[in-house]
Amino acid sequence: MQPSAMVTPSPTIADADGDVDMFLLEAQLGITSPSFGDYYFTRGNDSSKLDLRGGYVAGAKQTTPRRKPKDLVYPTIEVAVSPSTKGSETDEADYDMEDESENDYDYDDDSIEDDKSHAHRGHGHYQSGTRLTRETSRNPNYSSNSNWDQYEEVPRHMQDYAKVIKRVSGYEEWNEEQRHLHKLIFLRGLHPVMPASWRWSFKMWGIAEGNLAQVFAPENSKKEVIIKSYGNELAACKALESVFLCTQHILDFERLGQREMMGPFTAKTIRSYWRWALKDSGLDKCKFPPLLLVLEYEYSRDKDFAHEVSVSVMKKVEDVAQRWREMLMDDETGEYVAEPPTIFVFTVVQHTLVLSTYDAAWPELGIVQIEEVKFNARGLWLWNSLTVAIAVHMARDTLVRARKYGFIREVRRRKAKKDPDY
Predict the structure, then answer these.
(1) pLDDT tops 50 at residue 351
(2) What's the rounded Cα separation, in Å, for the pair 29 and 369?
(3) Residue-wise DSSP of 161-213
(4) How much of the chain, in percent, has pLDDT values that exceed 90?
(5) Given this model, what pLDDT does residue 131 score?
(6) Cβ neighbours of 274 (radius 10 Å)
(7) Is the torsion defined by CA of 249, 253, 258, 261 positive or negative?
(8) Residues 6+ away with beta carbon under 8 Å from 199
(9) I want to staple 405 with a disulfide (CB 3.0 to 4.6 A). Which of 125, 175, 245, 277 is the partner?
(10) In the predicted model, what is the mean pLDDT of the chain?
(11) What does DSSP say about strands 130-131 and 338-339: parallel, antiparallel, or unpaired?
């Protein structure tokens, strides 16, 4: 069973009825004391007293219309992975999303200089005023991850997008990377975001044929796509599959009454995919401040919950942004050797997730919300997954460019000493 047609799901903070169905951080949209609903609440540890609340409404204007796609058939069998994969000998095709083997290593303190020195020394790639965004060091012919604007039906969707951004408050003040992310989220499912060679790895997911096959690049295309791997494609597809499965797991928790598991599992899935992305590109061997944050909060009926979440998120994001500013600051000149990057933030409360960004170079703008998704919406499993994957790969692209220009570098690590008694 395949959907006969697909309608574009666009970024929004409202549902089909126009009601805001996700917590909105005061710091990013100026909403004061929103009242929460549509969340599950458990009194104490008594799982038998679960309660479903609905109708979260906040006093804010709808930014973009929600156009729901028709339900996609969620696969009930394992994904078939094409044997024609490529990768280096150091990549693990059987990548384990539960693996946290980095604990087996300790950083060699003698080899690590202060973070600030990394900003302007390394590989001879000093670039004064360089911004760590996608335009840096890219081939203009294949530069843009969304440079598919003339591909098949994409021009028609771009006309719709031009109308959408006119209604997005503050869009003119966003930096280039925030606009690019917003555009990719709007076009998810409508233009290529994955290599053509991945197509048959996801055959059993119903996206290898028909109109949903638009998420894959055309055969023999050399144009860049946002979701990609530097190493083993089998490991890359397996890592992405775990994100695809997140919606099904959240639905299972919902049916079993284990709603307290929703948020932690969603956050764990995103963190695991981020770890894979860093390992795949070799960035796990580099030292740098966090660029992508996954913040999970347990829902509370307390009237100050929204405010507390807002304050917590803003504090953590500002702390990370300050670390980037300090690292990229030249102490001698007092100027940045590279403009501080965009921070990516996933905020999770139960089955809902907000994707936001923060321009470390312009803190006055505050946190900018890009999209919110619900992982208990069966028909939106593909769009939910692409939201996560697109943001993860954009964040990784920033770090890859930072490494290329010497703003971050690899550090020597030594094997952790094992206790002989164990």
Answers:
(1) yes
(2) 8
(3) HHHHHTTSTTGGGS-HHHHHHHHHHHTTTTS--B-GGGGGGGGGGT-SSGGGG
(4) 42
(5) 53
(6) 23
(7) positive
(8) 208, 213, 216
(9) 125
(10) 71
(11) parallel
d(CA 127, CA 401): 11
Q: What is the dihedral of CA 34, 174, 188, 138, to 10 degrees?
A: -150
Cβ atoms 247, 377 nearer than 8 A: yes
C-alpha span between 72 and 379 (Å, rounded): 5
Task: Please state, in angstroms and rounded to a whole number, the distance separating the CA atoms of residues 147 and 158.
Answer: 11
Percent of the chain with pLDDT over 70: 62
Cα-flanking dihedrals φ and ψ of residue 316, to 5°? -65, -40
What is the residue whose two structure tokens read 């979440």? 309
**Mean pLDDT, residues 70-82 taken together:** 32
Question: What residue type is 203 in one-letter code?
Answer: K
- Joined together, the tokens standing for residue 366 give 């505050």
- Write out the two tokens for 66: 């929600």
Q: What is the pLDDT of residue 132?
A: 54
pLDDT in the model for residue 189: 85
b (16+ CB within 10 A) / e for 280-295? bbebbbbbbbbbbbbb
What tokens appear for 196 in the block?
Answer: 């053509």
Residue keyed to tokens 């909403």: 31
Tally: H helices and E strands in the chain: 9, 12
CB atoms within 10 A of CB 339: 20
Q: Which two tokens stand for residue 345?
A: 């933030």
Q: At what angle do helices 381-404 and 262-280 cross, to 10 degrees?
A: 40
Which residues, listed in sequence order, are joined to residue 105 by a DSSP beta bridge?
415
Longest Cα–Cα distance in the chain: 67
In this prediction, residue 42 carries a pLDDT of 33
Length of the chain: 422
